[in-house]
Amino acid sequence: MSITNKYPFLGSSVDSEKISLTIKSFGVWLIPAIIFIGKNYDIEIAETDLIDIINILAVVAGSIMTLVGLIRKVVNKYF
To answer: Where are the domains of the chain?
Structure first.
């Protein structure tokens, strides 16, 4: 089962089997955006710090998806 079947909102509007360009582009601009914001606030971001930040964001995103899935499951079962 592909991730786009499990989470349809991640799928492309052109080909539902592929991940959407919006999601892909988010990953592309995220790293430079974090570095840019850090430099504006005189925060030096090391590569390890950036990897930690991205790992935390991945955990948060996964947690949100899990929560939405659980809520959807409860709503579909009981309402």
So the answer is: 3-78
Q: How far apart are CA 31 and CA 51, in angstroms?
A: 9
CA distances from 75 to 12, 15, 25, 30 (A): 26, 29, 32, 33
Confidence band of 43 (pLDDT split at 50, 70, 90): confident
3 state SS of 2: coil
Crossing angle of helices 21-40 and 47-78, rounded to 10°:
130
- First-to-last C-alpha distance (Å) of the chain: 27
| Burial of residue 35 (number of CB atoms within 10 Å: 0-12, 13-18, 19+) | middle
| Cβ atoms within 10 Å, residue 47 | 7
Q: Is the pTM of this model over 0.70?
A: no
